[in-house]
Fold:
Amino acid sequence: TKSPVLGETYKNLSAVYLRKGLTEKALEVLEKGVKQNTKFADLRNALGWAYLECQKRREALEQFNYALGLNKNYLEVYLNLTLWYLQESSNNPLDRSALNQATEFVKKAISLDPEFEVAEQKIKDWDEISKLYLILKNRQAQRDTSHIKAICELYFLRFFYEGENLTSPSWQYFLNWLKERIETGMDFPDLR
Structure:
């Protein structure tokens, strides 16, 4: 599959605008990107985040849900939905349904991070869910495409300079690993 037309460019440019506090400009860029790439989960998620930054909560929720519909294993979307429902719970403390939703989304996020474990009985109150959200968001931010790209570049260089020494099992292992990462929802659009 090829990368969506300028999908990463729209996402990265909007991130710069958000960092500079130009939220309306970020929304404009992302909305244009989504029009051109309607089925790109990364852009939908980024647009949801920008809406959340602008306090357009209903629109944010729509985009997060749309992104989740495109990729059921998208860890960051589950985290963003956790945050959305934590905020909703904070705004309506007597309504437990929002906290229950936040709990379900953080549990799903935990299930998508095989290196992170937490006792399920600890996931019950607002403070614990928000703490888990912050931990998982930080862990997710540390995993970017630079790691997988570096591994791909390493294999390319190994093939180029010592191709005769690379064994078939070594290549098969690498290709299966890469395939698994992409198929399980690791969204690496720049590698497609």
Observations:
- DSSP finds nine helices and no strands in the chain.
- The two ends are 5 Å apart (CA to CA).
- The chain has a mean pLDDT of 81.
